[in-house]
């Protein structure tokens, strides 16, 4: 996959990198770059609150459930507030949909972009200090600027994304980003309060020795091809790595090669993960890095979303491994 190699040196700040986008794509008139700054700012605040999680009363259940019936963690709510507020104040996004809220939020801005976000994926891991992540997709709005937003501004196929990324709150905090011309990783330097370019032109190996699936699902998997594939991974003595935090599992496989599988199960016949908040963004990134993402039948980025919280099975990672499922 040919990309215009990022000519910028390792160590430059995300801000400088974004500035370069404006030079490269003058038609963004700075909107997309400012929108990325807003997302990065929100992630810095979430990162700071995450680091205090053990010290102040922000761990554990909030006491509510989100629209798909999952227990909301206190940090889920905090992260959702941080990202939504940063985006609404930034004015570049005209609206947002979040895994944590039922419907879209119209900021009544004149901005050209809409954002789909999972503010804190895998948040049930926070209490046990396992890495978690935020995932975002950015699309151009469909309806004319200045008119009220509609559902169709958000129900867009993954191929329409103009940018996508995730923040991994791990042993270090990293923001991984694609603008449709390759994938870059920025590591957060907390003493500077800046993300700095640490991984240029990330490319996933065509194959790998890691497979990531919740082994406890094995007796409930509905797709026979997946069952046969997992048995074959075992026969080949591949390495099983699954920490129950999608962004962390995905990131490891992106750098080392491997496949993450979340199949249709008896409990989740259409799959568990959300097309708009999790699958599309990671599919854009993995394809830009030379990998693949399918739902077992179709390319994830071609799937037509019919509902904000539509779920999907997900097979994502090294192309030769994903090809064995589809
Ligand atoms: P299970 C977390 O809830 C999440 O959405 C992903 O981060 C993670 O990969 C998956 O669900 C874990 O699901 O059913 O294996 O616990």
Detailed description of the structure:
It is built from seven helices and 17 strands. The longest helix has 21 residues. The protein starts with 13 loop residues before the first helix and ends with a helix. Bound molecules: 6-O-phosphono-alpha-D-fructofuranose. 6-O-phosphono-alpha-D-fructofuranose binds next to α5.
Set down the secondary structure blueprint.
Blueprint: H1 14-24, H2 31-51, E1 61-65, E2 71-73, H3 74-90, E3 93-98, E4 105-106, E5 113-121, E6 132-140, E7 161-169, E8 173-178, E9 183-189, E10 194-199, E11 210-212, H4 224-235, E12 239-240, H5 246-256, E13 259-262, E14 273-274, H6 275-288, E15 292-294, E16 311-312, E17 314-317, H7 319-322
Helix pairs in contact: 1-2, 2-3
The structure holds 6-O-phosphono-alpha-D-fructofuranose.
Question: Care to give the gist of this entry?
Answer:
The protein has helices at residues 14-24, 31-51, 74-90, 224-235, 246-256, 275-288, 319-322; strands at residues 61-65, 71-73, 93-98, 105-106, 113-121, 132-140, 161-169, 173-178, 183-189, 194-199, 210-212, 239-240, 259-262, 273-274, 292-294, 311-312, 314-317.
